[in-house]
Amino acid sequence: MRITKRALISVSFVATASLALAGCVSSGGGSNNNNSDGGTGEVTYWGAFYAPTTEEAFQEIFVDGFNAESDASVDMEVKELTTIGQLTDTAVSAGQAPDIVYSDGPTSASDFARADRTLPLGEYAEQYGWEDKFLPWAYELSTVDGEVSSVPASYGSMALFYNTEVFKEHGWTPPTTLAEFETIAKEADEAGMVPIGGGNAGYQGMSEWLITSVFNAAVGPEKLYDALTGEASFTDPEFVSAIELIQSWIDKGWLAGGSESYFTTDDTANVTGLANGTTAMYMTGTWTFNSLGEVFDDPSQWGWAPLPSLSDAVEPGVYPLAIGTQLSVSADAADPAAAASFIDYVAGDVDRALSYTARTGENPPPLQMSADQFPEDVDERTVQLYTDIPESTNVGYATWTFFPPKTNAYLISEFDKVVTGDATAEEYLAGMQDAFDKEFDAGTTLVPFTPSSRAGQ
Amino acid sequence: MTSDSTVPGAVLLVGPTRRDGPGARRSRPLGTRAQRRLLAWLFVAPLLIVNLLVITGPGLASVFYSFTDWDGLSTPAFVGLANYAEMLTSSAVLGALGHNLLWTLFFLVVPMSMGLVGAFLLSRLRRGQAFFRVLYFIPYVLATVVSAAVWRQILDPESGIGSVVPFLRDVNFLGNPDLALGSVAFVNNWQWWGFLLVIFLAAMRTVEPSLYEAARLDGAGPVREFWHITLPSIRPTFIFLGLMTVIWSFLVFDYIYVLTQGGPAGSTDVLSTVLYREAFQNQRHGYASAVAMLLAAISAAAVLGYLALRRRLRWDI
Fold it and tell me: What average pLDDT score do residues A60-71 get?
């Protein structure tokens, strides 16, 4: 079964970090771990992977590479991709976590840090130069009360995926506006296709992929920033219109084929639908890069485009930034220096990370990197994404990365009622604002990066 | 184990006894009464320890946590009855409780009836009974996740039964909120009723055949035999399975979680899926513990109700 969860993102990040470490070994570049500053003990690590080949690559590039280079050693235990988050949560709660603690994003990583279940990593951040290595927004998200508490191990965005042959056959080009998007959807519907992929079968969290896409493309990063910083409300008309836009797609039978099908369509069905031409467009995460090649008979046929603008207020091509995996050091780690050293080995070296990306298709860590650093064997569609994003001024916020946990949980679980028509957009968003208010007042919200348009203001 | 007759119900624990020959004395099975008690406790101790560690301990901990606001990480904060107050006014919990009641009603009626009637009919077969017993029991030994995944495919409107049966083409069994709970119950019943059948059949085999012969001589048909001989004779089994059905119906989780995860829009939510979501998705372990207390209270009420009936009606089980 194809993994469809946010856990996939996290796993990808973990795997990416591991591969990055291995790449460092092979290239001879990157961090020098062969010193006592990197610890000398044994580090326990839980990994989870999309495919056996991904696990193999992680083992070789990161684990074996680190063990060969470092005085410390890593013992990796492989878990199920779909359950590693929950396993880790339970283990952390019970004080039985591995030395390196996996989180599916900055939110849960910060929860661990606030509960003193993971260690502050300030001294290691300085030792390994993480502030300079990572993209500023990702580094900022990894801090709690101003101190680094975790390290982002992979990042990506939401995008619009399509079948290039199908688009060519119908004379479509990737849409950039709502009008273009809905024209394609209408024509696809008339052609008997599912116009817009979607659904939440098997993983209710799939709903937030859709919500992230529509919030960013219809509401826009600036308004989202305002809402996340308490300067605006999720009940404002822009958000209501965004949810009503989704409802209109459901009513027309465009999204996943309609309300009932939404609950019985999973990620695999959507990606397969793209491959066999029964689904026209699918807004999902770039973690899908690692599996599209296996689903399409001709891997060159899948294509992606930045999200179209879904309202007049938003420029086309917004990239909602998302971190899927954060790595922390357990408060009970026997050798924190060794654990931090492995984290840096996994996530802190561009060459190593990209060698893993080239081999597996996994998303790389949010490191400062340029196009010429990508190995030739990295898929050009992946290179395009990771060279476009740093240059873009139109970047937004993925819900699982920037929304506080209870708000995010509400956003997912209550969206079903929007789909079935049991809740209006206003009712749904009022509940979301209530949940957010509580977390905002409690000071557990994360600090989002300032939108590019306001930088320097 | 072998019983010695010295003390009624006592268990022979150590060594042979001298029973033969003139003047042979009946020996006590084991030294002093204190020693026997100690040995008894030693035998029970492993089970008690396991029970304390994995049932009683966590159970008491859940009672404590149900009065706290706890995210599983930080220090629990005592909130008194706030979790219970919220739970008892929560539309999600009350809706789930309603689904549990419907589920219980369904499983008390449908699979129990199917199992009883099926067992009665099978009991009258002279040949092939073992074959049918195995056939009906097979679903019960299949892993829940496997059979649920298979049924998910079967019920898929695109690739499942809808693609074969034209009038079911537009029926989305798991996606339609009005059909989802019944569909999941149907799938669970597919696995469950064969188990009941086998248990009822085993119970029916203990019924004295002369009762049936006498009834036939008096002109009773199969229906009257069932009502007046079979059913009263297997009453202990029937009542036990009924009681367990009530308890299990409130603990149901696996099929619902695999097939619908409580959706669409909570239409298949039961207390255990609400509990799971609150604990592991919303990180509200204190509130989830309160829901667990509600589940435990319902199960306890079922058992106490049974005990009261047993006393009032003077049942022998």
Answer: 96
Tell me, what's the pLDDT at A21?
35
Q: Which domain holds residue A335?
A: 6-156+322-386
The CA-atom distances, in angstroms, between A82 and each of A322, A338, A427 are 18, 27, 31
Mutate which: B282, B284, B287, B289, vs A, most A CBs within 10 A: B282
Angle CA A1–A263–A409, to nearest 5: 90
Kindly give the residue spans of alpha helices, DSSP state H, lying in A191-254. 206-214, 221-228, 237-251
Per CB-CB distance under 8 Å, the chain B contacts of A419 are: 264-265
Q: How far apart are CA A259 and CA B176, in angstroms?
A: 8
CB nearest A264 (choices: B71, B74, B175): B175
Contacts of B71 in chain A (CB under 8 A): 111, 115
Q: What digits encode the pLDDT tens for the residues A47-59?
A: 999 889 999 999 9
- Mutation site, A413, A417, A422, A444, interface B, largest B CB count within 10 A: A413
Task: Give the count of beta carbons closer than 10 Å to the beta carbon of residue A218.
Answer: 26
User: Length of chain A, please?
Assistant: 457
Sequence-distant (6+) residues with CB within 8 A of A421 are A247, A259
Q: Min CA distance, B298 vs chain A (Å)?
A: 26
Tokens of A65: 């590479």
Contact across the interface for A263 and B277, Cβ inside 8 Å:
no
Task: Answer whether residue A30 shows pLDDT above 90.
Answer: no
- Mean pLDDT over A306-330 rounds to 95
Assess contact for A406 and A427: CB atoms under 8 A: no
A152: closest CA of chain B, how far (Å)? 21
pLDDT, tens only, B218-262:
999 989 999 999 999 999 899 999 999 999 999 999 999 999 999
Q: Do A416 and B263 touch (CB under 8 A)?
A: yes
Task: Confirm whether A69 is domain-assigned.
Answer: yes
Q: Which residue of A has its CA nearest to B257?
A: A202
Does B72 lie at the interface with A, CB-CB under 8 angstroms?
Answer: yes
Question: What pLDDT is stored for residue B237 in this prediction?
Answer: 92
Domains: count for chain A: 1
Q: What are phi and psi of A153, to 5 degrees?
A: -110, -10
Confidence band, pLDDT 50/70/90 cuts, at residue B27: low
Note whether residue A112 is domain-resident: yes
Contacts of A264 in chain B (CB under 8 A): 156-157, 172, 174-175
- CATH superfamily of domain region B83-313: MetI-like (1.10.3720.10)
Give me the interface pTM, i.e. the ipTM.
0.81
